[in-house]
Design a protein that fits this description.
The chain folds into two domains: 16-50, no CATH class; 62-283, MetI-like (MetI-like fold, Orthogonal Bundle). The protein is built from 13 helices and two strands. The protein has helices at residues 11-36, 52-58, 61-91, 97-111, 114-125, 131-138, 149-177, 181-189, 194-205, 207-222, 226-231, 243-253, 257-283; strands at 38-40, 46-48. It is globular, with a radius of gyration of 24 Å.
Amino acid sequence: MAMKSTNQKAWFFVLPVVVLVAFNALIPLMTVVNYSVQETFGNNVFFFEGVKWFEDVLHSERFHASLLRQLSFTGIILVIEIPLGVAIALTMPQKGFWVSVCLVLMALPLLIPWNVVGAMWNIFALPDIGLLGRMINGIGIDYNFTQDPTAAWFTTILMDVWHWTSLVVLLAYAGLRSIPEAYYQAAKIDGAGSWAVFRHIQLPKMKRVLTIAILLRFMDSFMIYTEPFVLTGGGPGNATTFLSIDLVKIALGQFDLGPAAAMSLIYFLIVLLLCWVFYTLMMKDEDQ
């Protein structure tokens, strides 16, 4: 019996994507790898250092402190934004004119550039002229995010919640709208309450979109740079100096290319590992 031949010409359609990914990701990555194992003193002269920079970064208290701040920020963001986004999606209308209105309102914060978000909240939260700052101080709470680390954290988290909860809302709403009406009718016949419907119908059916939401919000919050840099500059002191801000300070502020390259690769591997852990935990029962 003759073997059926396979047409391999379809790979030519994938070739532009492969070239684009190689140019935008692999080539810069190889440059970073090159710097991470070498030292330079200028004049384009390099000296091989092996894994010295990786050891320095991993044993650095500065890196540990930045990583702890980053993990704390990301954990707080996920704990707030995922439940809040699902709750808002559940309260949104299912049909009619107000569906479009709600979707547009939810999408508005996502359309604002990141640096503009930081600038807006910087002005909004200033204790002297900002609406938020004057309101909080007006009720008797001493609030100044430029001097108080707790206030700086509160403002940064509030800014991120305002900016990115909409993404979770839109994903959760799409998951809810994809649930067939027959499930709700069966639940109504069985006399299931709102909590039972949410637990046994809505939440399981939103599992895939919530996995995407958690992964996107984890990656975005773990690599956040522009908004907190514009808002607080990493201060007061180092209170909001997350990994990304610390990395830029080392690379551009101190021009220590070797340690910065090693730190960026460790940063990349941490994000990759934690994303894999999140995805594995969320999808482990999917095939059952």
